[in-house]
Amino acid sequence: MANLTINKDLCNGCGVCINSCGNNAITLDNGKAIVNENCILCGICVDSCPCNAISIENISQPTKDISNSSGIWVFAEVSQGKLLPVGFELLGKGRALANQKKCSLTAVLLSHSSEAMAKELIYAGADDVLICADKDLHDLREELCTTILCNMIMARNPEILLFGATAFGRSVAPRVAARIQTGLTADCTMLEIDDKGLLRQTRPAFGGNIMATIICPKTRPQMATVRSGIMEPIHRDTTRIGKIVRVPFPSKLKTKTKIMETRLNKSTLNLADAKALIVVGKGIGSKKNMALVNQLADLIGASVGVSRPLVDAGWSEYKHQVGQTGATVAPKVLISLGVSGAIQHLAGIYRAEKIIAVNTDPDAPIFGVCHYKIVADCVEILKELIEIYKK
Amino acid sequence: MKIIVCMKQVPSSNDVHLDPVTNTIIRDGNKSIINPFDSSALEQAVEIKERLGGEVTVLSMGIPDTQRLLRDALSRGCDKAVLLSDSAFAGSDTLATAYTLGLGVKKIGKFDLILCGKMAVDGDTAQIGPELAENLNIPHVTDVDEVIFVNDKEIICSKLIDGGSQILNVPLPALITVVKDIKIPRLPSIKGIRFSQTASLEILTAQDISADITKTGLNGSPTQVVKTFTPVQENTSVEFKGNAKKIAKQIASVLGEVL
Ligand SMILES: Cc1cc2nc3c(=O)[nH]c(=O)nc-3n(C[C@H](O)[C@H](O)[C@H](O)COP(=O)(O)OP(=O)(O)OC[C@H]3O[C@@H](n4cnc5c(N)ncnc54)[C@H](O)[C@@H]3O)c2cc1C
Ligand SMILES: Nc1ncnc2c1ncn2[C@@H]1O[C@H](COP(=O)(O)O)[C@@H](O)[C@H]1O
């Protein structure tokens, strides 16, 4: 059993922990903080306390023997017959981590084919490639892949296993973690090895308001899904050599899930991958002005995102919504027009490299996160920009 | 059809902001809400029940205060609610949560379909659904945006994938996680509110579900948060001033540099 402990001698009754708690689990009693049944041991108050008075004590924890695990594995996802870029990004990061840990870096490829892909993975940093190939793996399905991956893991004991935080990665990785009974950190943006050799996995929580660094000390592999577009691939080096290991497709393996149809968006609206974005809020004024926005977007080759009220008002569609309950974007440049910058909206844009914000209110919260601040009518600016790019 | 909907209590992130001096999260009001994705899941479940008959049970693991929100769910069309609440569950990561919910499901008994939200807005892990499905040894589909057909043997649904969508056929029992706009949650009816006041809301402890407490809560959680911090905002913004024409030129030159 674990407990939240507040050291009465250290607590000065400042109440910072009470504000930090999302569950009303801390109150003041005679000028000292006390904890009640609402506590879920999330640990946020521990970090918030300026007096270091709060700690979590964990009394018993079962331990498993993990000493014989080694190596870093990267799941190289194939979609529509192509290796996804995030696999190369993870191999880039994995290479650096493997060098630091002095261990091997393995790419895991579940695919319909092929030798050529395995070569690319070696050029991208892998020491070896584990391949399981079968026509049943043409479309990746969770149950099949879980069994294959778990068989590989149990036979070879990797220390670290990384997935891209793609729709499929985020669906299959938890199944694998549950079968192996190990920890999994979702959607990481930073990976490091600490002085004990453990993987420190950092991810945004609460819509990007706070970052949490997480470790998995007692079970193996240490698993994480990692956002695309964050880690750097290494330079493709065709002189690199590596080993290719084929793992047979388990014979009796069947999946109950049938894919009846796959539709890819012709319009290629994938806000998450857009390099340039125009994001529009209520300040655009009218549905009619959306035509201007689309016109500028076409001229500069940008995609269009919107804040939630525009979807609610029917000025745009949900698939354009950016924010906590919409898309999370990471463009090189984002032009924000008439968006106030509510926390739920910021949750979707905090990874943009450059934000240019236009708002009539000089105190709008969006200016707290932008790189270029413009206090002006966004429709006027929009029209002027169209003039410039029309030429 | 016997349907289970997993619902989580989350802080109403609405009121979360940062204290720039102490660098900690400040919440005004400290109100809790049901994870918005789970409300959509509930609506989807209730609509299926209204078409095919059967029963919808809401399942949550949370602090005692979650009862309040489960009563609210009971006023929106579900039949029963089960709350797993015990100090032995505190500090659960996704593996421990999925273990505990799995025992809750077993306690509820036979089911055809489980619905979860795509993710909880506080943690955004989106892991509970697939982990729970694995524990129950049933197939799962994530990011479902439409239930096209369902009977007591199979479900045909559409799911969002990167850059498109897919239509899948899955035999039941199965688990799906749903995106928020799959359905718009209904408002409670007068009848619903009356029902919710007397409806069955079972509260179960670790002992009631025969949980192995080395697998629950902080004990059963392989992951540990070692540090939380606020992202550094290298916020040195440049202000562009002047008339619209001049500003537009400045913007264009920034765009020219990046694109
Ligand atoms: C659980 C939950 C989830 C949510 N999820 C999301 C989400 O995913 N995405 C999202 O966007 N929101 C989300 N919201 C809503 C969010 O809280 C805000 O309400 C929303 O982002 C505000 O949108 P807005 O900035 O367009 O509108 P407003 O807040 O109305 O702001 C309009 C802005 O335009 C400015 N303006 C007015 N006229 C002009 C002009 N002529 N030129 C320039 N500027 C002008 C105003 O100064 C103001 O700052 C969520 C809310 C909740 C409770
Ligand atoms: N404590 C909980 N009780 C009930 N359901 C939960 C709980 N935590 C997560 N879930 C379900 O799992 C979904 C995904 O949550 P998460 O993996 O935390 O992002 C939620 O939308 C809920 O349906």
Alpha-beta classification of chain B: alpha/beta
Distance between the termini of chain A: 69 Å
CATH architecture of chain B, by name, is 3-Layer(aba) Sandwich
Write out the CATH superfamily name of the largest domain in chain A. HUPs
SS field, number of helical segments of chain A: 10
Q: Helical stretch count of chain B?
A: 6
Helix content of chain B: 25-40%
Biggest sheet descriptor of chain A: 7 strands, parallel
**Which CATH architecture of the largest domain in chain A would you pick?**
3-Layer(aba) Sandwich
Low-confidence stretches of chain A: none
The averaged pLDDT of chain B comes out at 90
Notable features of this structure?
heterodimer, A: 391 residues, alpha/beta, Alpha-Beta Plaits, Rossmann fold, seven-stranded parallel sheet, five-stranded parallel sheet, 27% strand, globular, B: 259 residues, nine-stranded mixed sheet, two-stranded antiparallel sheet, 29% helix, binds flavin-adenine dinucleotide, binds adenosine monophosphate
Please describe what this structure looks like:
The complex is a heterodimer of chains A (391) and B (259). With 391 residues, chain A is of the alpha/beta class. Chain A has ten helices and 22 strands. In chain A, the strands form six sheets. Chain A has a seven-stranded parallel sheet with strand order 11-15-10-5-8-9-16, with helices on both faces. In chain A, strands 19-18-20-21-22 form a five-stranded parallel sheet. In chain A, strands 12-13-14 form a three-stranded antiparallel sheet. Chain A starts with a strand and ends with a helix. In chain A, 48% of the residues are buried. Chain B is α/β, with parallel strands linked by helices and 259 residues long. Chain B has one domain: Rossmann fold (3-Layer(aba) Sandwich), CATH 3.40.50.620. Chain B has a nine-stranded mixed sheet with strand order 11-10-9-12-8-1-6-7-13, sandwiched between helices. Chain B has a two-stranded antiparallel ribbon with strand order 2-5. In chain B, strand 9 and strand 10 (154-161) form a beta hairpin. The longest helix of chain B has 17 residues, at 36-52. The mean pLDDT of chain B is 90. Classes of the chains: A alpha/beta (391), B alpha/beta (259). At the A-B interface, helix 1, helix 2, helix 5, helix 6 and strand 11 of A face strand 3, strand 4, helix 3, helix 4 and strand 9 of B. Adenosine monophosphate is lined by residues 6-8, 35, 37-38, 59-62, 94, 97, 101, 116-117, 119-120, 123-129 of chain B.
